[in-house]
């Protein structure tokens, strides 16, 4: 088992132990043959940690009748399926002026914001994760050093209860704790050092 799968499994185990059904609403990961049918993705991201991510789980299940909160990987964020990644990438590249063709959405907040990966910023195996927060004073930048760092950040946030279950039974966050953890684990990413975030 690769490190991406190990981290992902630990995250879902915590969520399950907290009594939440979120993990059951993710689609099973794609095998090598299934990944290869996505030829454009495969040509850019084969043998990278992004391929390992979709081999672990293929995003949330759009056919699920669950509430959005029960589809989150972390509070407020949905992991897209590879099919949705490709569809959104094509749509954004065509219709959003500031969206570049080499950007592929990865996580969605259910509205306009996205975390995305940039095919031009692959360092051997690793793929950095950027953000597009269109209403933010600084709408685009890097948020996680790579996918392993993103999942490790999420795991530590769960372990230290920066992510928690609120009184409504939904995942929520203590943002100051999340910022501190994210700064520690993502030293190359600018988002967590922005002046408009809490110090």
Topology:
Blueprint: H1 3-17, E1 26-28, H2 32-36, H3 39-45, H4 49-56, E2 57-60, E3 78-79, H5 82-95, E4 103-108, E5 114-123, E6 126-132, E7 140-144, H6 147-159, E8 163-165, E9 171-173, H7 175-185
Helix pairs in contact: 1-6, 6-7
Structure in words:
The protein has 199 residues and is of the alpha+beta class. It has one domain (3-193). It has helices at residues 3-17, 32-36, 39-45, 49-56, 82-95, 147-159, 175-185; strands at 26-28, 57-60, 78-79, 103-108, 114-123, 126-132, 140-144, 163-165, 171-173. The strands form three sheets. It has a five-stranded antiparallel beta sheet with strand order 3-4-5-6-7. Strands 1-2 form a two-stranded antiparallel sheet. Strand 6 and strand 7 form a beta hairpin. The radius of gyration is 16 Å and the shape is globular.
């Amino acid at each position: 088992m690769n490190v991406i799968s190990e981290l992902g499994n630990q995250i879902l185990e915590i969520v399950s132990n907290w009594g939440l059904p979120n993990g059951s609403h993710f689609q099973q990961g794609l095998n090598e043959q299934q990944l290869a049918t996505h030829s454009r993705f495969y040509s850019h991201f084969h043998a990278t940690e992004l391929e390992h991510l979709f081999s672990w789980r293929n995003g949330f299940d759009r056919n699920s009748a669950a509430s959005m909160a029960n589809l989150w990987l972390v509070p407020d964020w949905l992991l897209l399926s590879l099919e949705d990644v490709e569809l959104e990438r094509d749509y954004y590249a065509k219709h959003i002026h500031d969206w570049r063709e080499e950007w592929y959405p990865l996580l969605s907040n259910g509205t306009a914001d996205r975390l995305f990966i940039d095919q031009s910023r692959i360092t051997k195996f690793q793929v950095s994760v950027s953000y597009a927060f269109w209403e933010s004073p600084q709408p685009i930048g890097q948020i996680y050093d790579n996918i392993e760092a993103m999942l490790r950040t999420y795991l530590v946030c769960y372990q230290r209860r920066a992510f928690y279950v609120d009184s409504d039974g939904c995942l929520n966050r203590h943002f100051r704790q999340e910022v501190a953890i994210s700064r520690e684990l993502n030293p190359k990413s600018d988002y967590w050092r922005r002046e408009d975030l809490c110090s």
